[in-house]
Amino acid sequence: MGKNYVDIENDQGETLRYRKHVNGRGLIAHGAKVHPTAIVEAGAYVEPGAQIAAGARVGRGAWIEAEAMIGPDVDIAPHAHIGPGAVIGGGARIGVRTNIGAGARVAVNSLIRDDETIADGERVATDRRGFRLAA
C-alpha cells in the first residue's frame, strides 16, 4: 500500500504536504477542510484554508486556492480554477476551464459556463441556463 500524502514545494520554496482525499484521491493541503461526502477527483488540488462543503464535487485538474469557500452540492468541472478567497454558493455549477477570480462571489444555484472568466472581486448571479441576473 502506497503512502497517502505528497510533499510539494511552492513558488516561495516552502514544502506543503497534501493528503489524498478518500473520495477521488485529489490532493488536500494541510489546513484545508473538505467534508467527507465531497468528491475531489485525482489531479485536483485544494490549498490551505480552503473549505469544501458536503456533496460538492471537484473535477480532475481543478485548483481551489487558499481561503476559497465551496458551498454544498457545488459541481466544479475539470480544470477549473477557483481563486483565493472566492466563494461559490450552494448548488452552483462551474464549467470546464473556467477561471473564478480572487475574492469573487458566485450566487447560489448559478451556472458559470465552460471557459468563462469571472474577474477578481466580481459578484455573479445567473439562472440555471447561465444567463446573468440583474444585481
UniProtKB/TrEMBL annotation:
A single MF term (Gene Ontology): transferase activity
Organism per entry: Microbacterium invictum
PANTHER family tied to this protein: ACETYLTRANSFERASE (PTHR43300), UDP-N-ACETYLBACILLOSAMINE N-ACETYLTRANSFERASE (PTHR43300:SF7)
Keywords assigned: Transferase
Full protein name: Transferase
InterPro entries: Hexapep, Trans_hexapeptide_repeat, Trimer_LpxA-like_sf
SUPFAM superfamilies in UniProt: Trimeric LpxA-like enzymes
Source superkingdom: Bacteria
